[in-house]
Amino acid sequence: MRLYDLELSGNCYKVRLFAALTGIDLERVPVDFRKGEHKRAPLLTLNPWGELPVLEDGEVVLRDSQAILVYLAARYAGEAWLPRDPAGMAEVVQWLSTAANEIQSGPATARRIEKFGGAGEKAEALGRSTRILSLIDAHLAHHDWLVQGRPTIADCAVFPYVALAHEGGVSREPYANVRRWIGRVEALPGFVGMPGM
Question: Pairing state of beta strands 60-63 and 2-5?
């Protein structure tokens, strides 16, 4: 199984983190983003969107970190990481959606602008970051984990750009519950970090 990977990408890291926590063996294929390898063959053949990560597992080829987490959990890691009951699954999917929307347009965008000089409105990204981190902090005031009272792929999806928020100029200092949750994730057996953590 291959993961086409970019070391500094929080979306690629989600997949690496989940694989490490569950003992899933991935062959990492580094992609030179600066040279545009993600925008030409052979990678563009695997993913016409020209984005990372891409997972190749035999005949299965997937793009999008949230979709890859769902696939890996359902295929290799079992119900502990992705509940099969409708309510439990929906709770996880809510957080996958949050990772792809509010976190992506908040802390992830602030980091992309600050760290990599990406385009975008920094003030807007910071405002969105404050809103979503406040909501997550309030949720974690009553929960050790995002859902199910245990780590799930929801935690893996949300964790990277929250943990890297400081690289976008977003302080985690006001969010004590978020900071404690980050510590719980980092204490999980098999945890691996990434640059910036």
Answer: unpaired
Is position 193 within any domain?
A: no
Q: Is residue 195 part of a domain?
A: no
Q: Read off the pLDDT of residues 62-96 as tens digits, 9 standing for 90 and up.
A: 999 999 999 999 999 989 999 999 999 999 999 99
Provide the angle, in degrees to the nearest 10, between the axes of the packed helices 122-140 and 153-163. 130
Among residues 40, 57, 77, the one where a domain terminates is 77
Range of the domain at 48: 2-77
> What is the spatial distance between Cα 132 and Cα 134, in angstroms, rounded to a whole number?
5
Same domain for 107 and 181, yes or no, is yes
Whether the CB-CB separation of 130 and 103 falls below 8 Å is answered with no
CATH number at residue 102: 1.20.1050.10
Could you identify the residue written with the tokens 């802390």?
A: 107
Considering only CA atoms, which of 42, 151, 23, 26 is closest in space to residue 95? 151
pTM for the model stands at 0.95
